[in-house]
Amino acid sequence: MNNFIRIVLGIMFLSCGREASFTVTGDVEGLDDVMVYFELGARQVDSVKAVGGHFEYKGNTLEAPEYITVRSGNNQWGGRFWAENSRIKITGSATGSCEITGSRTEDEYQLYREHMKPVWMAKEAANSMEDSVFMEFARRYPRSQVSLNHVYNCRLLHKYSFPRLNVLFQCLDTTAFKGRQWNTFMEVYNIDRKLQPGCTFPAFSFPDVFDTSLSLADYKGRYLLVTIGSAGLDEYEDGLLSRKELYDQYADKEFTMVDILLERNKEKMIKVIANYGIKWDLVSDCKYWDCYIVREWGIDHICQNFLLDREGKIIARNLSLGDLKKTMNDLK
To answer: Matching InterPro entries, A to Z (predicted)?
Structure first.
């Protein structure tokens, strides 16, 4: 009897001590007979198969809520949400919207977005006025170091595009300035100016994941989308599905892509290719931010893209997916 009591108490103790984990159950119309992948950060966590739109994934215990990515193996469906140790449900359509329930953190995140929306909208409206207000000041004080400092910060801190920056730059009396700040600004300005539409894209040569050296000349005769990013970076990976769609749509129209990645090694590149079914070239010298393009091309923020013509001249840069499609449709 005593042994029985000890066994029962032991089972009760183990049950009470077992940590909670998270599960994700999905009922997504149109998600039929495909693998569904779950990723935390840049690493692939696990996968389950969706049958008739239904899937269930049992994850490990999370130390704290984490932002998780879920996507189909064919990359036609996916999204991101906050996961925590609870039973989470995803319902909806693979071609429409989905609702996520069961995660308090995700609920709080949506409340946060709604709460902050008026501020973000007001900030956006104020930002649209900032340039014109500054230009009034700069036209009155075109030789002031304060005017230069504002333009300097717009480029170096706020990463203004060249067309937007150049409008402000034209308000300055360039004969008035010298010194370190002026020299630094002009170095960046002149680099930016050489990477605008109509200019020839600089030559490059980088190894791919198989150590095959690929250069700009290898793509001559085709339209080329050059993306500069880093595997594992949210902005880069969030755009992969859209660019995969673009690649599949225009691959037979003398169009291809190459991603120049700032990496320390090839590990994340290989994972991106495997996890997303990438068919275009990914290249890197694995020198991370010491890669020569950072200084020579003025690449101080990522991700960026450049659309080149068949001769390697820049057609446009930093286009959205919609603008890329429109531009490709307009090309003969």
So the answer is: DUF4369 (IPR025380), Thioredoxin-like_sf (IPR036249)
Order of strands, sheet of 304-308, starting from the edge strand that comes earlier in the sequence: 281-283, 255-261, 223-229, 304-308, 314-317
Give residue for tokens 């984490």: 66
Long-range contacts of 289-295 (CB under 8 A, 24+ apart): 289/262, 291/262, 293/204, 293/228, 293/260, 294/262
Instruction: Write out the two tokens for 134.
Output: 């500054």
pTM: 0.68
pLDDT tens digit string along 103-147?
999 999 999 999 999 999 998 888 889 999 999 999 999 999 999
CA distances from 208 to 43, 250, 269, 283 (A): 20, 22, 9, 4
Where exactly does CATH 3.40.30.10 map onto the chain?
A: 205-330
* CATH 3.40.30.10 for the 205-330 domain, yes or no: yes
Provide the CATH number for the domain formed by 15-102 in this structure: 2.60.40.10
Residue 323, phi-psi category: left (phi > 0), alpha (psi -120 to 50), beta (remainder):
alpha
3-state secondary structure of 68: strand
What is the rounded distance in angstroms from the CA atom of residue 255 to the CA atom of residue 16? 59
Three-state SS at 155? helix
Distances (CA, A) of 128 to 52, 121, 132, 177: 47, 11, 8, 28
* Gap between the terminal Cα atoms of the chain: 87
Phi, psi of 19, rounded to the nearest 5 degrees: -75, 145
In sequence order, which residues have a C-beta less than 8 Å from that of residue 108 and are 6 or more positions away?
A: 82
Residue 206 to residues 92, 132, 258, 318: CA-CA distances in angstroms? 43, 42, 11, 21
Start-end ranges of CATH 2.60.40.10 in the chain? 15-102
